[in-house]
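Hi L.,

As promised, DUF192 domain-containing protein:
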Amino acid sequence: MKKIIWFLVILLIILFVFLVGTGKLSNVLNKKSNEIEPVSQETISYDEYSRGNLIINGLTIPVIIANDTEKHIKGLSNRLLLPEDEGMFFVFEEPAEYMFWMKDMQFPLDIIWFSKDLEIIHLESNLPPETYPDYFGPKKDSMYVLEVKAGFGTKNNLKIGDKAEFLP
């Protein structure tokens, strides 16, 4: 039994020396629990996401599709960029009042809510990451939400009542 205890003590000492030597221990000790380090675009994989196109007023928007709870939660958080005329399209199973916030966002967004018939029912423009923990959304049911770079809605003259078509 004493041999096992000594073995564990020596193993812990070796681990401690390794962490101190590589600087990892100070990183762990100095990190605040609520700190989230932004990850690079390359480390966020959207390979498991479907893609499609949303057409509004003749404009075709390539979209990454978030169609389950895990993807809804992840959204565009910690992503460093989004191509100019692309977006993330959130597809929900049923209409409800879906609220969005800017948690862990690295750039401002326009967020556009659609009815179950793909009609724009609400728009929020130029939401900066600093608005977190505020959240945004319509006071009525939506079934789809589009996140795009800030200024996209104004640039493309999108407005409440515009109809969209989704092509998977």
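The chain has two domains: 1-35, 42-167.

Thanks again for sending the construct details.

K.
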